[in-house]
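Hey, resending since the last one bounced:
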Amino acid sequence: MLTKENSPKSPLKKSLVGIILAIAVGLAVFAGIFSSDSQEKKIEIYHITLADPSLYEEGIFTDTFDIPKGDFQFRFTPNGDSPKILSVSLEGSSFSFSEDFKLKGTPHETGVSVYYTWEYIGTKNIRTDENQGLKIIVNPHENLLGPVSIDIIPSN
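The structure tokens again:
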């Protein structure tokens, strides 16, 4: 008596399923390589995640980094606990920038619950006219525990 387990077609079906599975995995890896390539085009000029009070000195975070000539933008990753106002200044030999970014929450209703997405509102685009070293100064206005990531990336 033939059953599914000992059917003559069973090894063929298993091989076909294995081939299809291998092709699917290959396509997923191939797609992952190309999607990561497009993300790598957004080279970070600067990155910091402020989530530890020890990063601040007297309530202010400072750091230095080099920036090439060009157009850049700030990218933030805040959440509801992030500082409500985040003052960011950049100072260089021929460049100066200062902005008080304000945290804005946008509610999204799902029918069952409400969740928020968060963004900082303010001038996010900057232009440097020459390669230079910059000093970044971040003031979270006493909210040293509210996590936020700050990136400076090339503009599109």
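Confidence is low (pLDDT under 50) at residues 33-40.

Sorry for the duplicate.
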